[in-house]
Amino acid sequence: MKINEIKEIEDGSLLNIIGLITNKDVVRENDDNPYILFTIQDATGNITFPVCNSFEYNNQSFNIGDIVNVEGTKRDHRNKIELTNVDLSKSRDNIDINILAPSYNAPNEVTGYFIDKINSLEEKYKKIAIAATGAFGSNEKRWNDFITYSFFDKNNGDTKKGLIAHTVGVLKAIDSIIENYINTPLFKNSNDSINKDRLLLCAIIDAIMKVKKYEYDTVISRKETLLDFEVIGANYIDDINKESGNPLADDELQIIKYSTLYYNGPSGDNEAKTIEDVLLNCSDEIVGKVESITC
């Protein structure tokens, strides 16, 4: 059974899945009876579950990077899937670890929309978007990464969410908010306060920066260098600008750096400075909430 098939079986059903351990946490309750939270992944998603029996054995025997058989019982609890009565064993099958790495298969309509949106941007922003994503054959590896990355987060590892699909969702949300809410008789035209093309570029860079928090080679895991994330992100944006022939002046680079890093950084102390920051943040939140329910 694949991880994304678990939701299809009935509550109380027994299951057996093969996956790659991507995270392991020891949890100690007040009564000091420890248990282990394991997260495993396959090519279709990931799932986290507790293993409460044989603590010493399981803690010594199973580690991140191990391929394991998981036997347990599916439980539906408050619209969430849980695994109970779990037993782990090392897989005896000769499995290529790479087939357990999640990958997103972007539909043509998603990639088509994204390409059309890039083409519509003002030239200087278009150059940055092309370089950052590798679109139009500018960088085959970047483009392949962009269209195949599973948009992973700890609460929803279903790979029906791809990085490019999430990005397209945010772009559409920004368009919709501007056209259907801001550009109405209730408000002045947004052209005076919002640089829409720059905002759409920020949304693209922001999505790319999210996946830079993670390692994606077989085991999807949070990078240990997260404290340096803002520095890494700022350097990345500078490098893309240089690679593109420096189409953006320093003032716009600073705007893009702040907008895409202020709530992706580790501290969380920064706040939105402009209406563009607010629109990016709320559009990202809207799409994330919708994905968590529908994917």
Q: What can you tell me about this protein's structure?
A:
This protein folds into 2 domains: 3-100, Beta Barrel (OB fold (Dihydrolipoamide Acetyltransferase, E2P)); 108-294. 29% of the residues are buried. The chain has helices spanning 55-61, 108-120, 123-133, 140-148, 163-182, 196-211, 229-243, 250-261, 275-294, and strands spanning 14-28, 34-42, 45-51, 67-77, 80-90, 214-215, 221-222. Helices cover 42% and strands 19% of the residues. The chain is of the alpha+beta class and 295 residues long. The radius of gyration is 22 Å and the shape is elongated. A hairpin with a 2-residue loop joins strand 4 and strand 5 (80-90).
Euclidean distance between termini CA atoms: 19 Å
- What fraction of residues sit in β-strands? 15-25%
Main sheet characteristics: 5 strands, antiparallel
State the helical fraction: 40-55%
Tally of distinct domains: 2
Annotation field: number of helices: 9
- In total, the number of strands is 7
Q: Write out the strand line-up for the largest beta sheet, numbering strands in chain order.
A: 3-2-1-4-5
* Multimeric state: single chain
Organism: Clostridium cylindrosporum DSM 605
GO molecular function: hydrolase activity
Keywords: Hydrolase
Protein name: Putative HD-superfamily hydrolase
